[in-house]
Design a protein that fits this description.
single chain; alpha+beta; Nuclear Transport Factor 2, Chain: A; five-stranded antiparallel beta sheet; 8 helices; 5 strands; signal; Phospholipid transport system substrate-binding protein; MlaC/ttg2D
Length: 223
């Protein structure tokens, strides 16, 4: 119980501090590991999980797949940064408990969305490509451009935006654009619509998000 309370406090403080404690300041600091290397390793790690479960209909494999993807993503995704941007002004009005609750609910929806989107790409090849905006990259925001190539040669663009965290000494994903679909914008729009629908009731908004996540899980087969 003590460990759980400590974890709850750490998550709460992180959310309250938003981006400040996670991203490095703009200075002459040079990360020891290139963002591109970190991103391609992360994508490949997810694809390795996909290959393990691809086509399996065994009971429990779907949940096991999601749990393994979640383990891979946990150190790679800047969840608190993403959540702070999604909540926007609502973050200022939220209690500590509401912030922690939405963080946990969002993690599940993020894992489900990312895992579901990657499920069909186990046999695909992922390559780094040069981006048109590489000169604008900073430790606060670096855009890593990728190409996902099907066995038939079809190419799908993917862009992962990452920032460098000195706390973990690695790059953290803060957005993904796949084949023109901006995941960050999609999540932000979804939150804003639910928040308006529930007249600024944050608890109701989080519950609605949780219900949508459950419904998506029940209806999606990752096929």
């Amino acid at each position: 119980m003590r460990a759980a309370r400590i974890l709850h406090w750490i998550v709460s403080v992180t959310l309250l501090s938003m981006v400040g404690g996670n991203a490095v300041a703009e200075d002459d600091f040079t990360p020891g590991k290139p963002a591109s290397e970190s991103v391609i390793e992360g994508v490949q790690a997810v694809l390795d999980v996909v290959k393990t479960y691809s086509g399996s209909e065994a009971p429990g494999d779907r949940q096991a797949y999601l749990e393994e993807v979640s383990e891979v993503l946990e150190p790679l995704v800047g969840y608190t940064v993403i959540v702070s941007r999604i909540m926007g002004d609502a973050l200022d009005e939220a209690s500590r408990e509401q912030k922690v609750r939405f963080l946990n609910v969002f993690k599940r929806s993020m894992v489900n969305t990312y895992a579901g989107g990657m499920y069909n790409f186990g046999s695909y090849e992922v390559r780094l490509v040069e981006g048109p905006d590489d000169a604008d990259n900073t430790v606060r925001n670096t855009r890593v451009h990728l190409e996902v190539i099907s066995p038939e040669g079809q190419r799908y663009p993917m862009v992962q935006s990452v920032y460098y965290s000195r706390q973990t000494e690695d790059w953290k994903m803060q957005n993904v654009i796949f084949n023109g679909i901006n995941l960050g914008v999609t999540f932000k729009t979804q939150f804003d619509e639910l928040y308006r629908k529930h007249n600024g009731d944050l608890d109701a908004t989080i519950s609605a998000w949780e219900d949508m996540t459950e419904e998506a899980f029940d209806t999606s087969r990752f096929r």
